[in-house]
Specification:
With 419 residues, the chain is an alpha/beta fold. The protein has helices at 2-9, 14-24, 31-38, 42-60, 101-113, 133-144, 155-164, 169-179, 194-200, 207-219, 236-253, 270-273, 286-299, 311-314, 316-322, 339-343, 353-362, 402-405; strands spanning 63-67, 69-72, 118-121, 149-152, 181-184, 223-230, 256-263, 329-332, 366-370, 376-379. The strands form two sheets. Strands 2-3-4-5-6-7 form a six-stranded parallel sheet. It has a four-stranded mixed sheet with strand order 8-1-9-10. Helix 1 packs antiparallel against helix 4 (42-60), helix 3 (31-38) crosses helix 11 (236-253) and helix 5 runs parallel beside helix 6 (133-144). The longest helix has 19 residues, at 42-60.
Length: 419
C-alpha cells in the first residue's frame, strides 16, 4: 500500500508531498501543515485520503467496530438557546417533555434485552433541576442492569449538575462515578474557540470549562470521547486549532477513546433557519467531510487511535466512503436518536448490527462489535453471522420516535414554577 502511495507523490504538490511523507513517518503534523492540507485539490486531495487510510490501517488494522447502544435523551427542555440546536425547547413552549427516572430505566432495560451493552444519556438543561437528578438516574439504571455501561452527561451537563448541587466539578464527577457513570460523551465541544462559541452558543459552557471537565474526568479514570462540530461559521484555522487542542489534552491525560467529526445539520438549526449570522453555511460539502476526517486521522496519529464517523449525519453510503478516508468506527446502533433527527437529519434513528456488518463487508473490511471503551467483544470474520435480537426489530418506531415522544401527554414537561 505504501509503495502505491509513494509512486503517486511525484505528481503531487511538493509541500503536500512533504507533509504526507512526514505523516507516514509518524511525525507530528502542525496546525500550519493541517491548514495546508485543507487547501488540497486534484491528485493532492486523493493522496490525503490514501495516506489517511494507510495510517488507519497501520494504527488499528482492517477491523471496523460498532457498539450496540441506545440513546436516551430524557428531556428537550433547556435553559440555553444554542444557535445550532433544533432539539431543545424553552420551558414555556409546547412540545417540551421530561421522562421520569422510571421511564429512563424502562428504556435502558428494553435496550439491554435486545443486546445493548451501552446506554447513552444526554439531554437539555431543565430549569430548577434537582442537583442529584443525574446521580439518581445512574443509580436506578445500575440497580436494575448492573452490567450495562452508562455513557452519559456531556461536560455541559456535568457543569450544570455541579452548579445545581452547589459543589465543585471535581466533587460532582466523583459522585457521578460512584453512581455508575462509566464514560462521558465529549459533546458540547463544538469548536474550542471562545469568540466563535459566543456567536453560535452564547452562555454555553466555555472552552476553558469544557477542557477542565474533560481533564478532571480523565484524571479520575473516567474516559471520554472527543468531538468537533464543523460546517457552520468556523474557519479552517478554527478546525485545525481545535484538533491540536484535543491532541494536547490527549498527550497530558490519555483519556480520549475516540474522535468524532460532526457535520452541522442546518435544516432546522435556528441560526441557519433565521440567518442569524452572515456567512452561515449548510454544513460541510462531500469533499469537506472527506478531508476533515482524513486530516483528523493524520493529525491525531500517535494520540487518538479511533476515528468515528456519524452515520446519522452523513448517511450510510457516505459512511462507507469515510471508512476509506481514515475512519475505523461505525458508531452505535442508537435505537433512538433525537438531537440530529430534530435538526433535520434524514438518516433515521436505528441502524441494525446486521446492516452495519453488511456495509463493512461491502468495502472488504471485517466488522466487530465492541464495548464503549473499544474492547472487541466479537469479530465477524469470513462472512460469519449470528442472529441478533435487535435484528428482529422491524424498525425504530417500535421503540418510539422523537416526533411521537413530544406528543405523549404523560411526559409533558411541567414547569415547577407554575402553580
Amino acid at each position: 500500500m505504501t509503495m502505491n502511495i509513494d509512486s503517486l507523490f511525484k505528481y503531487a504538490d511538493p509541500i503536500i508531498s512533504e507533509i504526507l511523507n512526514n505523516a507516514l513517518s509518524d511525525k507530528e503534523i502542525s496546525a500550519k501543515e493541517g491548514i495546508e492540507l485543507y487547501g488540497a485539490d486534484g491528485i493532492n486531495f486523493h493522496l490525503i485520503g490514501l495516506v489517511a487510510d494507510e495510517i488507519r490501517r497501520r494504527r488499528v488494522g482492517d477491523t471496523v467496530s460498532y457498539v450496540v447502544n441506545r440513546n436516551i435523551n430524557f428531556t428537550n427542555v433547556c435553559i440555553k438557546q444554542c444557535g445550532f440546536c433544533a432539539f431543545s425547547r424553552d420551558f414555556r413552549e409546547e412540545e417540551g417533555y421530561f421522562l421520569p427516572t422510571e421511564e429512563i430505566v424502562r428504556r435502558a432495560k428494553e435496550a439491554h434485552q435486545v443486546g445493548a451493552t451501552e446506554v447513552c444519556i444526554q439531554a437539555g438543561l431543565p430549569p430548577d433541576m434537582k442537583g442529584d437528578l443525574y446521580e439518581n438516574i445512574c443509580r436506578e439504571i445500575k440497580k436494575e442492569i448492573p452490567n450495562i455501561h452508562i455513557h452519559g452527561f456531556s461536560p455541559e451537563e456535568i457543569l450544570y449538575g455541579a452548579d445545581r448541587s452547589n459543589t465543585t466539578i471535581d466533587e460532582f464527577l466523583k459522585r457521578m462515578k460512584e453512581a455508575g457513570v462509566g464514560t462521558l460523551p465529549g459533546t458540547s465541544a463544538e469548536i474550542l474557540d471562545q469568540k466563535l462559541r459566543d456567536k453560535i452558543s452564547p452562555g454555553r459552557i466555555s472552552a476553558d470549562n469544557w477542557e477542565k471537565v474533560i481533564k478532571t474526568a480523565h484524571k479520575m479514570g473516567i474516559k471520554t470521547t472527543s468531538t468537533m462540530m464543523f460546517g457552520h461559521l468556523e474557519t479552517i484555522e478554527h478546525r485545525v486549532n481545535h484538533i491540536v487542542k484535543l491532541r494536547e489534552i490527549q498527550k497530558e491525560t490519555g483519556g480520549f477513546t475516540e474522535f468524532v467529526p460532526l457535520n452541522f445539520i442546518h435544516t432546522e438549526a435556528p441560526m441557519y433557519k433565521h440567518q442569524l449570522h452572515e456567512g452561515i453555511r449548510q454544513g460541510g460539502s462531500g469533499n469537506d467531510v472527506l478531508l476533515t476526517h482524513a486530516i483528523a486521522r493524520i493529525m491525531l496519529n500517535n494520540s487518538i487511535d479511533n476515528l468515528q464517523m456519524s452515520w446519522v449525519k452523513e448517511g450510510q453510503k457516505m459512511s462507507q466512503l469515510l471508512l476509506m478516508w481514515g475512519a475505523n468506527d461505525f458508531g452505535g446502533t442508537l435505537i433512538n436518536e433525537s438531537i440530529s433527527t430534530s435538526a433535520g437529519s434524514e438518516y433515521g434513528q436505528l441502524l441494525k448490527p446486521k446492516e452495519i456488518r453488511r456495509m463493512v463487508r461491502e468495502i472488504k473490511r471485517t466488522p466487530a462489535e465492541r464495548d464503549t471503551e473499544y474492547n472487541i467483544l466479537k469479530k465477524f470474520e469470513n462472512g460469519e453471522e449470528e442472529e441478533d435480537k435487535l435484528d428482529k426489530i422491524a424498525n425504530a418506531s417500535q421503540f418510539g420516535s422523537y416526533v411521537e415522544l413530544v406528543k405523549i401527554n404523560k411526559f409533558n414537561y411541567k414547569n415547577p414554577r407554575r402553580k
